[in-house]
């Protein structure tokens, strides 16, 4: 995100901190974010799920094996449910 402080405030506002062990919130390439999370967590890229509104980020992360979902209009419950259903298979 280009507005890390805003993203952090939203995470606090919605009380989502308890759901995330690893956070990478700063401007930059998503491959860098995921590389750091991969190293810290030892979670395989193939076990990660990513939503983004920028095609370039989707393509970059698909190349390393992250299941990546393009969401040009944002995320909603239906998109998450479909992504999780496809992710399981």
TrEMBL record:
Pfam families for the chain: Acid_PPase
TM segment ranges: none
UniProt GO molecular function: acid phosphatase activity
Protein name, as recorded: Magnesium-dependent phosphatase 1
Lineage: Eukaryota, Metazoa, Ecdysozoa, Arthropoda, Chelicerata
InterPro entries xref list: HAD-like_sf, HAD_sf, MDP_1_eu_arc
């Amino acid at each position: 995100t280009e507005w890390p402080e805003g993203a952090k405030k939203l995470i606090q506002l919605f009380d989502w901190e308890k759901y995330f062990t690893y956070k990478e919130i700063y401007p930059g390439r998503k491959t860098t974010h995921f590389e750091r999370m991969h190293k810290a967590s030892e979670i395989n890229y193939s076990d990660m799920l990513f939503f983004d509104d920028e095609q370039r980020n989707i393509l970059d992360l698909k190349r390393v094996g992250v299941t990546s979902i393009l969401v040009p209009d944002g995320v909603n419950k239906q998109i998450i449910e479909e992504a999780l259903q496809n992710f399981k298979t």
